[in-house]
Amino acid sequence: MLRHAWHKGAVRRQQEEPLTANFPIDLATALWLGFTGACIGSFLNVVAYRMPLGMSIVWKPSHCPRCQHTIRARDNVPVLGWLWLRGKCRDCAEPISPRYAIVEAMMGAAFFVLAYVELFSGGANLPGGPILPWTGALDNVWNPLWPVIGVYAYHCTLLSFLMCVALIDQDRRRVPLRLLLFAGVVAICCAATFEFLYPLRGWTGLSSNVQAIVDAGVGAFTASLFGLTIVLLGATALRLSEQAKRHVHATNCGTAIAGGFLGLKAALVLWLLWGIGVAVVRLRNKKPERQYLSILWPLWFASLGLVLFWQQIADFLPL
């Protein structure tokens, strides 16, 4: 009763106050979430490096691979730490790849933008959205509204998994099966619990939770087949070298995760967006002077773009 009355007051306040009144708390919350995303990006760098090598991702603190000195806490701040050190180890002056800062910045930016587009809007970016009538960080985050917070966290988790797989494939290593299984368990458990995660349902005559689970399974399987088809169309994969087999495996993992998290209908749209990015990356990789770029990077950007503009894409490409 009190919660309902509070929300009625929130709606009345939003109608009476100008939009700029919520700007400070929205910006502060988005920056906090963006920093959280950058910290997750830092952790993903560690996971992508250690997990394929069978190393623990929690046992040993971050350290320089050359001199083995532990990275100091003040130097381990996402993005800023790399800038402070000018891209070099403080102890041995060994260069630190800018990829670490780039990944942190990408994840931070994704969390920041998605907070405004999805979390603060009450899910207005989703087909059929918004899922809640309240907007802003004050009404959706600090007075927790778990449906929209759950959707936001779910999509951030998807981007985190895809980033990890892309990093592993960029290093031309094999994606551990336990990473794929963990992502599958997360997708299925969330599908069985939260009803707003699959706004485009592909099945009728089933209960809401069962529909979501079926969408997750079929979406993962279908997207994985699409990914396999795209890879096998490339000359590198057709040679079926050991490196090509790892690439096929990584692509299957990435597309299966995306399809499982987004569902069948979204996976069909994602395949179209990703296919355009794959064509661009393949043309780039043909130039010998360019460094190899994984085709899973376009998948990460396509997934982020689909989530951000899902409503508009669904209106333009009705399925």
What does this structure look like?
The protein is mostly helical. It has a domain at 110-316. Helices cover 66% and strands 0% of the residues. It has 13 helices and no strands. Residues 1-19 have low confidence and may be disordered.
Question: Looking at the chains present, what oligomeric state does this protein adopt?
Answer: single chain
Choose one word for the global shape: globular
**What is the average per-residue confidence, as pLDDT, rounded to a whole number?**
84
Number of helices: 13
Overall structural class, as computed from helix and strand content, comes to mainly alpha
Summarize the biggest pleated sheet. Answer: none
Q: Care to count the β-strands?
A: 0
Order of helices and strands: HHHHHHHHHHHHH
Low-confidence stretches: 1-19
Radius of gyration: 21 Å
N-to-C terminal Cα separation, in Å?
40 Å
Q: What is the share of helical residues? A: 55-70%
Strand content: under 5%
Keywords:
single chain; mainly alpha; 66% helix; disordered N terminus
Topology (elements, then pairings):
Elements: H1 2-16, H2 23-50, H3 80-84, H4 99-119, H5 137-142, H6 146-170, H7 177-193, H8 208-232, H9 235-238, H10 242-262, H11 264-285, H12 296-308, H13 310-316
Short synopsis of the structure:
The chain is mainly alpha-helical.
